[in-house]
Amino acid sequence: MIKPIELEQLSYKYIDECLNHKKEHASASGRIVLITERKIPTIDFFLRIWIPIQNKETICRRTYYNWLNGNNEEKMHTIKRISDLFIALAIDIVANEAKGIFYAKNRLGMTDKAVIEQQEIKPIIINLGSGINPKEDDNYKYLQPAN
Prior knowledge:
mainly alpha; two-stranded antiparallel sheet; about 5% strand
């Protein structure tokens, strides 16, 4: 099984790859150019895809969480450092690039906040008169057109 120090060293290489990732992009002239686009690091991709591509021994997600929640201090602190690195980079990407908003909501627990401003509702008062027959009302004469 991979040693904790080896897993941590691989995490630094993975972070470096996430920071320097390039993708092909069509320019306005139609040329294909390489542009730098940082990738959000994820534990799942790191353990299940990236490490095996490097032809290195890996651990499964269950082992990862057993190390995190276990009694072995070295393994627990290694996993916490890796997780902290991944989260720090993810937060920076989210803060500085629009593409990270969905990751922030789904993986980092961030939410949109709707600010609702409540104002006192004031009733609209419509005075329909005294309820007396207008002809009997003293104000009736003021409501009649002048002759």
